[in-house]
UniProtKB/TrEMBL annotation:
Its EC number is 2.1.1.200. Transmembrane segments: none annotated. The lineage of its organism: Bacteria, Pseudomonadati, Pseudomonadota, Alphaproteobacteria, Hyphomicrobiales. Residues 18-168 form the tRNA/rRNA methyltransferase SpoU type domain. It comes from Ancylobacter defluvii. This is tRNA (cytidine/uridine-2'-O-)-methyltransferase TrmJ. It is found in: Cytoplasm.
Amino acid sequence: MPGAGTDSTKPWHEGGPVVILVEPQLGENVGAAARAMGNFGLSRLRLVNPREGWPNPKAVTFASGADRILEQATVFPDVRSAVSDLKFIAATTARERGMAKPVMGADAMAAELAGRLAANEDVGLLFGRERTGLYTEEVSLADAILTLPVNPAFASLNLGTAVAIVGYEWYKLASGGALPFQPPERSPLADKADLFAFFDHVEQELESAEFFRSPEKQPSTTRNIRNIFHRVGLTRQDLATLHGMITALVEGREGRAARRAKREG
């Protein structure tokens, strides 16, 4: 049975840019990053000298089912070896580094990476340490800088959150923004004949209940009631439900009991 947003009967989307985590300090953050990757169709994870070693059981716990990403992750001793086979690298940072490199937001970078992948250029996203981010010399190895519009007084993001934001922009582009589901099909809109029949029903019962206490105001009150229902855009199913509600209110408990007794007798 599918869990909250998890459905093993559906295909697992893979590919996209390589995600490279440089010297991640906590296994929990590696797991959270892997979970975000799984959410947004990224499957290739590389780890550079993780502080707590690898594999890490804490990462599995925090990956929340994205185990395959962790199982296929590769470990490298340094950034150079982790990116040496890539044609284009984007370094993520919240700090200005004084380098003459293109600076892009996550949406523009997603478009850049998609174009390069389509041209058979393998690409990577470089994420730094939780406490200090990427070192300047590591950023210098990249072709471009990826940054986000964050509060300048509090720009540091959790590693998993950073991967999630960048992954979201990637998958939104790669999937064409398709949502996982749409609202259920509504019943067809009621035609005017059905709507007029409903007005007759409700107005007749309101008349019987002496709702219209002022004959002078009855026409304007009737128009107001009709306008309320006109604004809603009622479907055939809506009208059937409303007819049933009015009938039940008119009948009351005693009427329903009498009808049930008649049916059972």
